[in-house]
Design a protein that fits this description.
There is one protein chain. Helix content is 47%, strand content 6%. A two-stranded antiparallel sheet has the order 1-2. It is mainly alpha-helical. A hairpin with a 5-residue loop joins strand 1 and strand 2.
Length: 136
């Protein structure tokens, strides 16, 4: 079963909130946390990951906070997942660099190839779904 982690879910909520309020002042992590009922410490860590990946910008100071750097019509679900160092994998053998340590049957498995094809389709779909589409 493919399941989006809470980290990805919270990040999507926060990114949409930031995008919806981009015409106003920067939003503090405390305000985002309070308004969306997301644990503050976790949200702060997620936002810092998004800053490091160039998705949001952090401004320090009294009027500081977070702004979106990527257009919500161009920011894909896959971009968000990758920025958080998360994976959406069907099986242990469907990621780049999978080897015998990930699955003992990797070299003679008759379902690996179909799973890889399906994984590629899922990745393509996640890359085509934008933040704006996902939240409207």
């Amino acid at each position: 079963m493919i399941k989006i982690s809470k980290s990805v879910e919270y990040s999507i909520l926060a990114l949409k909130y930031i995008a919806d309020n981009e015409n106003f002042a920067s939003l503090s992590s405390r305000k985002i946390s309070d308004d969306l009922n997301i644990p503050y410490d976790l949200l702060s860590k997620l936002l810092q990951k998004l800053v490091r990946k160039g998705i949001v910008q952090s401004q320090q100071g009294k009027y500081g906070g977070y702004n979106l750097l990527v257009d919500s019509n161009k920011l894909s679900l896959l971009n968000i997942i990758d920025a958080l160092d998360e994976n959406i994998q069907l099986a242990n053998c469907t990621f780049d660099g999978a080897n015998n340590e990930d699955c003992a049957r990797i070299n003679n498995c008759y379902i690996r190839s179909p799973f890889l094809n399906l994984q590629n389709k899922i990745n393509k779909m996640f890359n085509e779904i934008t933040l704006n589409e996902l939240t409207n």
